[in-house]
Specification:
alpha+beta; two-stranded antiparallel sheet
Length: about 50
């Protein structure tokens, strides 16, 4: 079972559309809706080497 770290949506089997964030809190999964809504914030934290 996996829960979205933002909205709390819970799924038995995590879909491939979910994304994983690693932070000071550890691993945090985001559902596809929260991933889309927070895409700019996620991209902003990527290392320059990704671009």
């Amino acid at each position: 079972m996996t829960a979205c770290g933002v909205c709390g949506t819970v799924v038995e089997e995590r879909p491939a559309t979910w994304s994983l964030q690693v932070s000071e809190r550890g691993q945090v999964w985001l559902c596809d809706t929260c991933t889309r809504e927070n895409l700019r914030s996620i991209e902003g934290r990527l290392d320059e080497a990704w671009w």
